[in-house]
Amino acid sequence: MSVTSASIEALAAYHEAGHAVAAYLLGSKPRPISIATLGDDLGLGEGPPPLRGMKLDSDGSDRARLRLERAIIISLAGPIAQRTYRPGLWRDWHGEEDMATAATLAMKAIGSSETTSAFVNWLTLRAKELVSANWSLVEAVAERLTEDRSLSGDQIVATIEDRPQARRRRAG
Predict the structure, then answer these.
(1) Residue 37 per-residue DSSP state
(2) Which of these, 40, 102, 111, 113, is most buried using a 10 Å CB contact count?
(3) Cα separation of 122 and 97, whole Å?
(4) In the chain, what's the furthest Cα-to-Cα distance?
(5) The whole model's pTM is what?
(6) What is the DSSP letter of 30?
(7) Which residues pair with 33 in a beta bridge?
(8) Residue 47's pLDDT is what?
(9) Contacts of 48 (CB under 8 A, 6+ apart)
(10) Radius of gyration of the chain (CA)
(11) How many Å apart are CA 135 and CA 42, to the nearest integer?
(12) Cα–Cα distance for residue pair 98/79, rounded to 1 Å
């Protein structure tokens, strides 16, 4: 299968859109995203990490664990959206950085390696369900990102909120 620059940009757009839609639906303002300059990483756009600015430490409280859960789901939603968009072009290394982030955050929340692994698996299922249930929002953001090449957080929110189901589903 031939991979063109347009398909690489589309993969990147869906990856970044997955992060952005998950952030929005889980009550965080999406960070700016861009596919304006793609590096050597197929399917990964340049731009601020989707979790920048979030408080990601753990004091052992339920509140801190829930913050970490949301951050892990946001991290996992990017590669899940990319893989959902074009499963035939998925390579395990595409989501390597996001998976490493999820594992690091899970260790902060849980502590033991066996429980952390189960925790990440559970949150992966939750992220898959979130992406699947909101696929039209991911598509809308990815399509706009492909056209505009970069989106601010406000542009992402406007794109999502242009869809009626977004207002009903936001967890806030």
Answers:
(1) S
(2) 102
(3) 19
(4) 49
(5) 0.84
(6) P
(7) 151
(8) 39
(9) 31, 32
(10) 15
(11) 21
(12) 7
